[in-house]
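Regression check, geranylgeranyl diphosphate case 307:
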Amino acid sequence: MSTPTVFPSTARNQPFPEWMRSVQARVQATLARCLPPAESIPGRLHQAMRYTTLNGGKRVRPLLAFAAGELTAAPAERLEIVASVVELIHSYSLVHDDLPCMDDDVLRRGRPTCHVEYDEATALLVGDSLQSLAFELLAREDFGASSRQLEMVRLLARASGSCGMAGGQSIDLESVGRNLNQPELELMHALKTGALIRAAVLLGALCGSALSVPERESLDRFAKRAGLLFQVVDDILDCTASTATLGKTAGKDAAAEKPTYVSLLGIERARELAADLRTQALASLAIFTERGQRLVDLTDFITQRKF
Ligand code: GRG
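Current build output:
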């Protein structure tokens, strides 16, 4: 049996951009290995799954999983799996979100969306299959104690389902043309975008040694603030960045009359809110001192991202 590699053995001194690239490359390789081969039957579905998942993306959720794994000295092999698992769920959500019955979009990550490149039925099956594959991988890997593994499966299921991402999407679809107040908007985003981001952080930490109760509570607080920060920045970018830079259709939310932080607060107050959330997220990491440095860097990456 091979000795597990603790990812940060050399990585702790690596500059952030280099670390980020190395995690992105690891996740890309793991996804390429774990997705069904393009030539295996049913070929069209497997090609579409690979088209969707392997074509770019910032890999923010995998990066968060790896960075949280540094808090608990988690083995790299486990982090590769949980990072890929959350990315598979994220990719599924994007494919379904782009369908004509939802956001009806033609561009994603700078390329035609899955249903445009293939067809609607295939895109539906791609989402279904990516979700199933995520749970298969999470159940298959050895994470040590089976009770912990069950907790991880439950956490991901809760984050993806009607009390998490799918539920948030349902509220999103119902809210078109309506004015939500700030707590309502926050709830929608805590579910739609925040739940999976929180799951990425907690799953990464669960790959290593146990955290103390105050540490776990602080990490959870961080994850919730970081999820909301991600969304506020996304709303700002939707109305300030170009389609070419975003790789997806810019100005979509306003055109679809969707409530956003910018429509609710205006651009300046939305920027102030992002700055406040960044401060709150960083304050939650204080308990981890230098072990939390990657999460600090990632918080800044999420705040300053341009696409
Ligand atoms: C269909 C069940 C179901 C859920 C869809 C997450 C979601 C719910 C829809 C995505 C729509 C969207 C644009 C939400 C805003 C925040 C978000 C998730 C942006 C895309 O994530 P990035 O920026 O994308 O991490 P990349 O391409 O970098 O992976």
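Comparison notes: The beta strands are 107-108, 111-112. The domain at 11-304 is CATH 1.10.600.10 (Farnesyl Diphosphate Synthase). No diff flagged against the previous build.
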